[in-house]
Amino acid sequence: MGAGLLLNVTPGPDVLYIVGRSLSQGRVAGVVSALGISAGCLFHIAAAALGLSTLMLTLPLAYDVIRYAGAAYLVWLGIRAIRARSGALAVRAMDVVPLAAVFRQGMVTNALNPKVALFFLAFLPQFTDAARGPLAPQFLLLGVIFVANGLLVCLAYALAASWLGAWLTARYDVHAWLNRAMAALFIGLGVRLAFGGRR
To answer: What is the pTM of this model?
Structure first.
């Protein structure tokens, strides 16, 4: 839960979408966009639970390939976060659209992002254990916990953006520290995934 919360707190494209909607259309649109992003995450969790859990049990070599690719991806994300320039969040203005479209855009943006799919394939296996029973329910439970954490964080961003408006885009002093914490977490998880052996 701690790792998932840290990852969710760190600003990224989903947060920028939510903040942009909140600034452009207010609190309700921000909340709806957060719900859409979370709905998109559920698609990735189901895919990881159904696909990767089966792969882990039937094709050990294929799983090892995914494990090393996931480890490399997490380390790469960590290095990129370290090299990222700190500063204000670049939130662009958005056209006002109906709330159903706000939800749909958030869901589709997240569901069609291959980086999110790869992230779940690399992140969730860190916390599963075949000795404790079937893997698919473990993936689903961990994914739901991650999405619940993420929804709370996204709702907080939406409310803060709608209340604080332009102040959030002009001042974001903790951005550099969040980047460093996220970088350390990604690199640590990548190393653990690469050298921790098969689950």
So the answer is: 0.66
